[in-house]
Amino acid sequence: MTDFLRRFRALPGLFLLILACAMQPAGAQRPGPIVSTSKSTLQPGDFIAAVVNQDIVAGSEVIQRMAQMRQQMLNQHEPVPDEETLRDKALDSLIDERAVLTFARENGNKVDEAEIDRYVSSIAAQNKLTMPQLLEHLKADGMDLKRFRDNVRDQIMTERVRDGEVRSHIHISDADIDSWLEQRRAALAGGAELDIAQILITVPDDASQTVVEERRVRAQKALDRVLAGEDFAVVNKEVSEDGNKANAGEIGLRPIDRLPDVFVSAVKELKEGDVLPHLVRSSAGGFHVLKLLKRSGARSLNEVLETHARHILLQPSTQLSMEAAAQRLGEFKQQILNGTATFEELARKYSVDGSAAQGGDLGWSRQGQFVPEFDQAMNALAINGISDPVPSRYGVHLIQVLERRNATVDARQLRTQARDALTEQKYDAAYQDWLKELRARAYIEKREWPDDQN
Q1: pLDDT-derived band of residue 88, with 50, 70 and 90 as boundaries?
Q2: C-alpha angle with apex 437: 436 to 442, nearest 5 degrees?
Q3: In this predicted model, what pLDDT tens digit does every residue of 338-393 receive, in sequence order?
Q4: Cα 230 to Cα 209: distance, rounded to the nearest angstrom
Q5: For residue 249, which of 292, 199, 291, 288 has the smallest C-alpha distance?
Q6: 3-state class of 156 per DSSP?
Q7: Domains of the chain and any CATH numbers
Q8: pLDDT over 60 at 31, yes or no
Q9: Helix %, strand %, coil % of the chain (to 5)
C-alpha cells in the first residue's frame, strides 16, 4: 500500500483547517483559533459550540466549516440545506475530527521534526509561497510557527492512528479471499487483453449542461470524421485532449481488468480495427471515441500486469478550490509537454503526497493498490502518457505511467493481493464504524447556539 493512500485516506478536514488558518489574507475577518482551541485562547466574541473530551469546538470554527460546506455544495450543484441543518452538519463533522484528534494524541507515536519540516514545506509550495511568506501569513493570522507546527504534528499523527485503527477493524476471512480469487479467475477465463485507441474530449466536473453539450458535439464531430474514413491518428492529433497523442491515442495492450469497465463493455462486440459507432461517456474523463486495435487471449490468474507510475497531488483548501487545483495541474502538464519543467521537479516542489521526495514515484503497483478513480485514470494511459487532472477523494492528481510489465506471482502473493483489494473495498465502511465507536466512548457536550449568532 503506497504512502499517499495511507496519508490521505478520506479528505483530511483538519489539514484543510490548518491551511485555512494559515492562508487567511491579511486584513480579512478572522474566525479565531482553528485547531486545539482551549477556553483561555478563545478570541473576544467567540464562544464554545461543543466540548469533546478535553478539547473544544469554537463557534467560529462551525461558522467557517458551514461556509466551506455551502461553497462545496454550490460548486457541485447540490441543494444547500437550511441554516440550522447546515450548522448541525458542520458541528458534527468538527466533533468527529476532535474525537479522532484527542484519541490520536493519547495513542499516537511521536512524529519527528524532519517529517514536519517536509509537510510545512509542501504546504508553502502548494500555495506558491516561500517560507518567509508563509511565516508572514501566520503572523498576520495571529499564529506563531510553533503552534502551526503543532497543528501539523496533530494532523500527521491523526492520519497514522486512524489508518492503523481502521485496518484493525477490517476482518478478511480465507473464505472471502477464496471468493475474490474465484471471481477473478472466472473474469479472466472469459476475458482477454485489449488494445484500444481513444479520442478524448474532456468535461469539467462542474460543467454546466451547456458546456457538456458543447463538448459532446465536439466529440461527435470527431467520431463522424473517423466513421467517414479519416485516419484515426490524424483526428486524434487534432482534437484529442488525452495524454497519448504521441501514440495516436493508443492505450496499449492490457488485461480487461486493467481497463475502465465502460471501455470493456463498449468494445466487446467489435472486431479488430473497428471504431465504436457511438460515443462513450465516462465519469472520470468525458466523451470518448473508441477504436479496438487488438484482442488477445485470456491469461492465467498468476499472470499480473504491473504498472510503474508517478503522480503530483494537490489538495483543496479555502484558498485553493478543486477547480483551481485542477487548473494548476493542467498548467503543470503543459509545462512538462513544452519542456519548460520536468514531472519530477514539479512533484518535488508542489506535491503534498509522501512520494514528493522521490519525484512523485509510486513504484510498481498491481490492481487494487490504488483507489478506483486513480486506478481507472492510470490504466487508461499509454507508456509515458500524462493524464489530465484526476479528482479523487484525496484531492486532484496528475499521473504519468513510466513502465508496464507482466509478472508471475505465487499462490501466497495472490492471496496477499486479494487481501489488499478486499481491505480497500471495506475501508470506508470500517472507518465509519470505528468513528461511531470512538464517538460513543467520547465525552461530548453540545452547547446552545447564542441567539446573536443566528
Answers
A1: very high
A2: 95
A3: 999 999 999 998 888 889 889 999 999 877 678 777 887 888 788 888 998 888 87
A4: 30
A5: 199
A6: helix
A7: 3-170+446-453 (1.10.4030.10), 191-296 (3.10.50.40), 304-408 (3.10.50.40)
A8: no
A9: 50, 15, 30
